[in-house]
Write a structure and sequence with these properties.
The structure holds two protein chains of two kinds. Chain A is mostly helical. The radius of gyration of chain A is 23 Å and the shape is globular. By secondary structure, chain B is mainly alpha-helical. Chain B has a single domain, classed as MetI-like fold. Chain B has a two-stranded antiparallel ribbon. In chain B, helix 6 crosses helix 8, helix 10 runs antiparallel to helix 13 and helix 12 packs across helix 13. Classes of the chains: A mainly alpha, B mainly alpha. The interface between A and B is large, with 104 and 108 residues. Chain B: It is found in: Cell membrane. Chain B: Its main location: membrane. Chain B: Keywords: Cell membrane, Membrane, Transmembrane, Transmembrane helix, Transport. Chain B: It holds the Pfam family BPD_transp_1. Chain B: It is a multi-pass membrane protein.
């Protein structure tokens, strides 16, 4: 086949699949901008006759408190778990002790388990320490179950820092903490960006812990969105506007810092 | 790729300074203790929250705690026997099998071909890449809400399909093909699962695309050039040179997708729920509803343990293998 024809064919295939991928976005945007009397199953493909922000207003008034809950959850949880992961990664890559690699594998298994298998004791535990239905309770959960992925990401990141750098700092008389603070930390900026973006996205999008640890007024945005969508009385335009509002922060992060998001994804990433 | 990433080639820096400097060595060991002290909290947390809690769930699964009030009297394997006889759980297993199968095939095939196409130094490469990748930044809840609307049987893509005389009921269909009677259920491919596969594939293809793209960029150009000089056609180069190089990546993508699929909860819960006759139910949804809606804690725990075992079958050999690659 001549090269130009096969290239056009490739473009054609990519464009067709690309359009398929954008269909949900189109439908979501179009529906969210319609007044609810125009939202009907028969007309879902049509553009709105006039742009109407009513759906957004209603979605915003319903979801705003939960949006803030998610912010209060995601910011501390991301910072703490990134710091913890960085320390763990530093120890497991530069201060390997006997059996360190096995310890790493044992920690790593924690990110693959179905969380259903720890949920019953977890809820019991969170109740017992008085953090049930609180944001700090959810922060704790996300920090703990974030340890495997953040440790993995930082360990691999630090593996690229030459050991000779650590050794020469030791000869200069620097200890564990000084090396971390003055050698590792300054070299970790990219690592922190990648891990923070990853944790931010995952915790923002997480649902299972959110729906079991919190109820009503403490719920993060994804639970509120699900409740919004689950109720029969809420119109589709409000649901779609709500979905866009809920997706906006992670989508913005992807648009602005996509490169780092993909790096995180490739660093042994797992969703769900 | 993640195999490469799970391991590193460096050996530990155990080159302590010469034994003739006792002062230095003493501080070194002090630092080693400090390092251990810093990682100890994480190890303890994982020991309790992962392994301890799994043990606790196992204990609950063997108890009689099937009401609101905890009851830890020993029930043996009654809960497991119950769920395996249960219509709903049998349907879950059927749905999981077909969902996992189709989902993995779709994500691997679509991701790989898109990666190969995008790797051809196209104009607008970044645009294409981003179109396929952005759903990865979205939550399964958002995906579920949107696709429930797009695939709504009385609207959505069906309005387009009806022009061609096709009537799909998508996730509301209760049809199962070929509907063999096995156990309490009709075994076969539940039509409704296809809708879930589409939504999940839409979201996760970006991951496989990024993995394959990274892999393709890692194949040395000389390798393809050499094959070309030897007179291989582009097709032969794909089968004989590129595909073998992508094998480890394909393996990683399959493992990671399999474990996502076995645990899946949010997407199903928001998009369809268990569905009529449980045609779209999955173990994760069943566990959640059995435990937290109906208070059958012991049965819920039993389902959770089955899920864990299924995931472990895929993941443990994968982790051990990556550990061996380290040595």
């Amino acid at each position: 086949m001549p090269r130009s024809i096969s290239r056009s064919l490739i473009y054609l295939i990519l464009i067709v699949i690309g359009i398929c991928f954008l269909i949900p976005v189109y439908v979501m945007l179009v529906t969210s901008l319609k007044p609810f009397d125009q939202v009907s199953l028969d007309h879902m493909w049509q553009l709105p006759k006039a742009i109407d922000w009513g759906g957004y207003r209603e979605a915003f008034s319903k979801l705003a408190p939960n949006f803030m809950n998610s912010i209060y959850l995601v910011v501390p949880a991301t910072l703490i778990s990134a710091l913890l992961g960085s320390l763990n990664g530093y120890v497991l890559s530069k201060w390997k002790f006997k059996g360190a690699d096995w310890v790493f594998i044992i920690i790593l298994f924690g990110m693959f388990i179905p969380y259903q298998s720890i949920l019953i004791p977890l809820i019991q535990f969170i109740r017992d320490i008085g953090l049930y239905n609180t944001i700090p309770g959810l922060i704790l959960v996300h920090v703990v179950y974030g340890i495997p992925i953040t440790t993995l990401m930082f360990r691999n990141f630090y593996a690229s820092i030459p050991d000779a750098l650590i050794e020469s700092s030791q000869i200069d008389g620097a200890g564990f903490l000084r090396i971390y603070r003055y050698v590792i930390m300054p070299l970790s900026v990219t690592g922190f960006v990648v891990v923070a973006i990853w944790q931010f996205t995952n915790i923002w999008n997480e649902f299972l812990f959110a729906v079991t640890v919190t109820s009503s007024d403490k719920q993060p945005i994804m639970v509120a969105l699900q409740n919004l969508a689950g109720s029969q009385v809420v119109h589709w335009n409000v649901q779609m506007a709500g979905a866009i509002l809920a997706a906006l922060p992670t989508l913005l992060v992807y648009i602005l810092l996509g490169k780092y998001f993909i790096r995180g994804m490739l660093a042994g990433s797992v969703k769900g | 790729m993640s195999e490469v990433i799970l391991t590193d080639k460096k050996t530990p820096a155990r080159k302590t300074t010469l034994g003739s400097k006792p002062r230095k060595r003493k501080r070194m060991t002090g630092d080693r203790w400090l390092a251990l002290a810093f990682i100890a909290p994480s190890i303890i947390l994982i020991a309790i929250f992962v392994y301890g809690f799994i043990g606790w769930t196992g204990y609950v699964s063997l108890s009689n705690w099937n009401s609101f009030l905890p009851d830890f009297s020993f029930a043996g394997f009654d809960n497991f026997l119950y769920i395996f006889k249960d219509f709903r759980f049998q349907a879950d297993i059927r749905n999981t099998i077909f969902f996992t199968l189709f989902f993995i095939i779709a994500v691997v095939v679509l991701g790989m071909f898109l990666a190969i196409f995008i790797d051809q130094r196209l104009k607008g490469e970044a645009i294409f890449r981003n179109i396929f990748l952005f759903p990865m930044a979205l939550s399964f809840v958002v995906t579920g809400v949107v696709w429930r609307w797009v695939l709504n049987p009385s609207s959505g893509v069906n309005l387009l399909l009806e022009h061609f005389g096709i009537h799909f009921k998508w996730y509301t269909s209760t049809a199962v093909y070929p509907s063999l009677h096995i156990g309490a259920i009709d075994f076969g491919i539940p039509a409704a699962v296809i809708a879930l596969v589409i939504a999940a594939t839409w979201q996760q293809t970006g991951f496989s695309l990024a993995m394959f793209l990274a892999g393709l960029r890692g194949i040395p150009e000389e390798l393809k050039e050499a094959a070309r000089i030897d007179g291989a056609s582009e097709w032969q180069i794909f089968w004989r040179v590129i595909l073998p190089q992508l094998k480890p990546i394909m393996f990683s993508v399959i493992i990671i997708m399999a474990h996502i699929s076995l645990k899946i909860f949010d997407l199903i819960y928001t998009m369809t729920g268990p569905g009529a006759n449980f045609v779209t139910d999955m173990p994760g949804v069943n566990m959640f509803e059995t435990t937290f809606k109906s208070n059958f804690y012991a049965q819920g725990a039993a389902i959770a343990i089955v899920m864990l075992v299924l995931v472990a079958i895929f993941i443990v050999p994968y982790l051990i293998r990556s550990r061996k690659g380290d040595a």
